[in-house]
TrEMBL record:
Name of the protein: General secretion pathway protein M
TM region positions: 16-37
Organism of derivation: Thauera aromatica K172
Keywords: Membrane, Transmembrane, Transmembrane helix
């Protein structure tokens, strides 16, 4: 009847062994094929998620000269707004206190007190605060605030509280200009190393 199987695989047991071996071989090949198909799908999904990021990186690489020019410009202007990292924070606070006292006196204000407050750390810089109390007239206060803006690095006004006290006048005299007592919370920025 079936001469090929009878000739090469004589007996029923030999055929079962060969059939079992072929079945196990097919199962192993199916598992390997399933694993390879899963890896292929993972590779396609990964490439699909990486492709937009890669395109963004290529775009940034093309913009690199413009980004570097922008960073150089920011670095050049940074000196206008913050003290360099090489200077000590305590020295900056002391210099700020002396400078503010001089500016206030130049503006015609009397300095009642000044106090350096503890520094506050932020991302990339340290804020060095100073509390200043001055007294004088409104024109002197305007001059003081205008002078803060002209300073380099800029002196920031965080809070300002002014109280007016009426001036004393004699009978028959016109009312005098009110005196101001002003508390100002100031700060400067210091780059972190």
């Amino acid at each position: 009847m079936n001469t090929f199987t009878d000739k090469h695989f004589p007996g029923r047991d030999a055929r079962i062994v060969v059939g079992g071996f072929l079945l196990v071989l097919l199962l192993v090949l199916a598992v390997i094929a399933s694993f390879l198909v899963g890896r292929l799908n993972w590779a396609h999904d990964t490439l699909g998620s990486i492709e937009p990021r890669y395109a963004r990186l290529l775009g940034l690489r093309e913009l690199q000269p413009q980004l570097e020019a922008g960073m150089n410009e920011v670095g050049a202007h940074l000196g206008r707004y913050a003290h360099p990292a090489a200077i000590d924070s305590a020295r900056i606070g002391t210099d700020l206190q002396q400078r503010v006292r001089q500016i206030a006196e130049t503006a015609g204000l009397g300095v009642a007190g000044s106090q350096i407050l503890p520094a506050r750390t932020h991302a990339g810089f340290v804020q060095i605060p100073l509390k200043l109390t001055v007294d004088g007239n409104l024109e002197g206060l305007r001059g003081l605030l205008a002078a803060f803006e002209r300073e380099a690095p800029v002196i920031l006004v965080d809070k300002l509280q002014a109280n007016a006290t009426p001036s004393r006048q004699g009978r028959g005299q016109p009312p005098g200009e009110a005196r101001l007592v002003v508390q100002i919370d100031l700060s400067v920025l210091h780059l972190q190393p």
